[in-house]
Amino acid sequence: MQKYSGFGLFKHALSHHENWQRVWRNPTPKKQYDVIIVGGGGHGLATAYYLAKEHGITNVAVLEKGYLGGGNTARNTTIVRSNYLWDEAAHLYEHAMKLWEGLSQDLNYNVMFSQRGVLNLGHTLQDMRDIERRVNANRLNGIDGEVLDAKQVQEIVPMMDCSENARFPVMGASWQPRGGVARHDAVAWGYARAADALGVDLIQQCEVVDFVMEDGAAVGVRTRQHGTIGAGRIGCVTAGNSGVMAKLAGFELPLESHPLQALVSEPIKPILDTVVMSNHVHGYVSQSDKGDLVIGAGIDGYLGYGQRGSYSTIEHTVQAIVEMFPVFSRVRMNRQWGGIVDTCPDACPIISATPVENLFFNCGWGTGGFKATPGSGNVFAATLAKGEAHPLAKPFSMFRFHDGSLIDEHGAAGVAH
Amino acid sequence: MFDIYCPHCQEHREEEEFHASGEAHIARPLDPDNCTDKEWAEYIYFRKNPRGIHHELWVHAAGCRKFFNITRDTQTYEIKETYKVGQQPTVTE
Ligand SMILES: Cc1cc2nc3c(=O)[nH]c(=O)nc-3n(C[C@H](O)[C@H](O)[C@H](O)COP(=O)(O)OP(=O)(O)OC[C@H]3O[C@@H](n4cnc5c(N)ncnc54)[C@H](O)[C@@H]3O)c2cc1C
Ligand SMILES: [Zn+2]
User: Fold this and answer.
1) Averaged over B66-83, what is the pLDDT?
2) ipTM over 0.85
3) Cβ A79 under 6 angstroms from ligand 1
4) pTM for this one?
5) What is the number of other CB atoms lying within 10 angstroms of the CB of residue A414?
6) A11 confidence band (pLDDT: 50, 70, 90)
7) Average pLDDT over residues B68-83
8) A184-197 and A42-55 are packed helices; what angle lies between their axes, rounded to 10 degrees?
9) Closest residue of A to B23, CA-based?
């Protein structure tokens, strides 16, 4: 792999940037792999990378039905934070946060991780009590966090309406300075390039349509384009499509797939240098380096695989943003899209063995898994390598729903993104 | 935007009057005292979540406030039929 550097950029400028190496190979799949990852989103690619890098398992293929990072990874609003309430979740997301902090260097790829801070606003007394509880829990877990009052919030975001005349006045916020945003595509591409360099085969346009079973164990996958491919272990990382994949393997998951929308405005001059999220008026916004406002809110209430959402949801989202930022009321919106998020009853992921031997699932990240991409891949790789759950992944078994040990992050963690 | 026929009101109304309440026809275990934890979990949490035909419970929240069922394609979003709770769907694939 050619190393990216300032000097390299200069060198390639001399030949008009015409001799850059391809970012990854485009191999034809082998007949057998040690590990097959189904789903080439950020989580699947990160899993493949850490399998190769930390466990020396390089006979690995990532099978992606579309193009790499074209699922929720491409569609998300890129908010990264780790201020979750419960220990299990806090440890997992903080593990990811620490990996984010060195990720561009590790991958030799600029993922544009920008720790511009995340505000979770409180608009009611109960909001503020919950925020205080959560920030205290975070600090006990070694995660940065502060409780701010309305005046301090106003200082950080001068453009926001923090007055008492607002319909839902801002009473304060939790503030995680280490939170921020990252470039979604770059995360997928960076992991893909680094995994490829370590020998992982990235197979695009390759849809898994069934699992090959022998004596109740999965021994391979059937693909639409490349026939049957054998595998020692299989990791399924298919986000919104996970329910469909589980059905192929003969079991159900505690998941429902819903559309989640986002939208961006036309690019405007720098106006917002942090991330603002509000559970109560229900919307969140940040500004990308390109200048567009990146806006999102809640899922559509019904089950859907259509990668689009309803007008009423998008209308509520925009109402919330204008309520917080009246100054945005005349900004024009440029694009709107939807992804399919796999929501779990306790708003926590599933990183787990399954009723089928050799088949593991990493899903249920729902509306908030982008922030976990490095950590998720890291612990899932360890799980696949050893055949048993990484300590941080252990509480997230799908069987927690059988014994009642749910990790209820619903509402506990601000807006669920 | 869905245009939904409420079988109680017997007219089409806009999506915003309704609220989706998830998978329909989930039967409560008949003998709850003798259910295993796994059976309870399947009843409460585990779902079919299909890509395609889905029978689902909706409530006419801002209308008659009654529950009813919809058969809908979760890929195309086409509504195939609506019917009252207690009735069986006619469209199954
Ligand atoms: C609008 C929106 C906003 C969001 N905002 C945030 C946010 O601000 N912060 C945050 O942390 N999270 C956010 N999320 C959630 C986040 O995007 C996801 O949790 C995360 O990206 C999931 O990554 P993934 O790699 O598991 O899934 P994906 O990126 O969806 O990858 C799954 C891949 O599997 C492939 N696949 C599926 N079935 C098959 C098959 N049969 N064969 C082969 N390949 C298959 C798909 O094509 C896809 O590429 C948001 C999501 C959406 C939709
Ligand atoms: Zn009605």
Assistant:
1) 97
2) yes
3) yes
4) 0.97
5) 29
6) very high
7) 97
8) 30
9) A303
Q: Which residues of A touch B2 (CB under 8 A)?
A: 310
Contact A287, A294 (CB under 8 A): yes
Q: Dmax of chain B from CA atoms?
A: 44
Element (H, E) at A221: strand A217-223
Q: Which residues of A touch B15 (CB under 8 A)?
A: 310, 312
Residue A411 pLDDT grade (very low, low, confident, very high; cuts 50, 70, 90): low
Going from the N-terminus, what domains does chain B have, and what CATH number goes with each?
3-27+38-84 (3.30.2270.10)
Residues of A in contact with B72 (CB under 8 A): 302
Cβ distance A272 to A159 under 8 Å? yes
Give per-residue pLDDT as tens, A140-181: 999 999 999 999 999 999 999 999 999 999 999 999 999 999
Question: Which residues have C-beta under 5 Å from ligand 2, the single-atom ion?
Answer: B 6, 8-9, 60, 63-64
pLDDT at residue A217 greater than cutoff 90: yes
- Angle between helix A184-197 and A373-386 (nearest 10): 30
Q: Which of A43, A68, A72 gets mutated to test ligand 1 (max ligand atoms within 8 A of its CB)? A: A72
Q: How crowded is residue A217: how many other Cβ atoms within 10 Å of its Cβ?
A: 13
How many CB atoms lie under 10 A from the CB of residue A241? 22
Nearest CA distance, A340 vs chain B (angstrom) = 11
Nearest CA in chain A to B58: A302
Residue A212 and residue A222 in contact, taking contact as beta carbons nearer than 8 Å: yes
A339 alpha carbon to ligand 1 midpoint, in Å?
Answer: 7
Amino acid at A284: Y
Helix (H) or strand (E) holding A95: helix A87-101
Q: Which residue in A174, A131, A135, A167 sits closest to A152, CA to CA?
A: A174
- Predicted confidence at residue A413, as pLDDT, reads 54
What are A306's two structure tokens?
């259509």
Class of residue A146 by CB neighbours under 10 A (exposed 0-12, middle 13-18, buried 19+): middle
